[in-house]
Design goal:
Helices cover 74% and strands 0% of the residues.
Length: 288
């Protein structure tokens, strides 16, 4: 029996989408469903999960308020710091840099990703530790300089680790910019500053929002940088989750925090998409 063209299209679509759908359902939907179920349970006497239906875990979120405060403070600040550094770099690469050197300069931004984040963070531990930068201050006669295990060290690690993820989306947005618009603005008598704020910045905002959303969402679940550069004194939500699941074995409370984190991430993404859509008007905006 012949298969109609419409059925063929459906079969092809199912063949293409099916494996990804099964993968996402198995490794995303099912685990998150289990986490949601755990969040409404109770901690067993010996640790782990005990079936129940209670909101006590969510009511107890204030017990980890420091982790939420640090995360919701340092993550946006870190994303903003990345943006302030990344935009001039991306602007230079897309607008000012010579075409024959552009790919080389972009490679210099990407190369740090070839090294493990753990190794790079350990390098910063040495630089910020007693035998690193503070030792140079001591040689200059400035004693008791403490850089490691502080919010500043965590913020520095955040900017260092996530800066390329901010540069690349902005660069792509600026690289697609129609240069004739810049020339037209100049021909109409606009100053370079007016052209930047009136043409360049608005047209690059979708890339800016993509970078901000990407970096902020990843930072909300960050564990390694606060653990190593914060020395256990600057807790993020990721650190709290590791403690609750692996050490305290309070799976329901950890699940409640994880569910709350997912809600925050979704809220950040929706806000970023709405802002980017309003800024871009009818143009398509992809944040992820």
């Amino acid at each position: 029996m012949a298969v109609s063209a419409e059925n063929k299209r459906r079969l092809v679509t199912a063949a293409l989408v099916g494996p990804a759908a099964v993968w996402l359902f198995t490794f995303l939907v099912l685990p998150f469903t289990a986490v949601v179920i755990f969040a409404f349970g109770e901690r067993a006497p010996e640790g782990g999960y005990q079936p129940a239906f209670t909101l006590a875990q969510f009511a107890n979120l204030g017990a980890r308020s420091a982790a939420f405060t640090n995360t919701l403070t340092l993550a946006p600040i870190g994303a903003l710091a990345c943006l302030l550094i990344a935009y001039p770099v991306a602007y230079y690469l897309a607008i000012k840099a010579d075409q024959k050197y552009r790919m080389f300069l972009i490679s210099l931004i990407v190369i740090p990703f070839w090294t493990s984040m753990l190794v790079r963070t350990y390098a910063w531990m040495y630089l910020l530790g007693a035998r690193g930068i503070p030792h140079l201050f001591e040689l200059a006669g400035i004693d008791d300089v403490r850089l490691l295990n502080t919010p500043g060290a965590v913020l520095l690690g955040i900017v260092y680790g996530y800066l390329p993820l901010m540069i690349l989306p902005i660069y792509v947005s600026l690289e697609k910019l129609d240069r004739r618009l810049l020339d037209a603005s100049a021909d109409l008598g606009a100053t370079p500053l007016s052209t930047f704020f009136g043409v360049t910045l608005p047209l690059s905002l979708p890339g800016v929002m993509t970078g901000v959303a990407l970096v902020t969402i990843l930072l909300l679940g960050e564990y390694l940088i606060p653990q190593l550069l914060g020395g256990g004194k600057v807790f993020f939500i990721g650190n709290a989750l590791v403690d609750l699941f692996l050490q305290s074995r309070n799976w329901p409370f950890g699940s409640a925090i994880a569910v709350t984190l997912v809600v925050v991430v979704v809220a950040v993404l929706l806000v970023a998409m709405r802002i980017a859509w309003r800024v871009s008007g009818s143009r398509q905006v992809d944040l992820i």
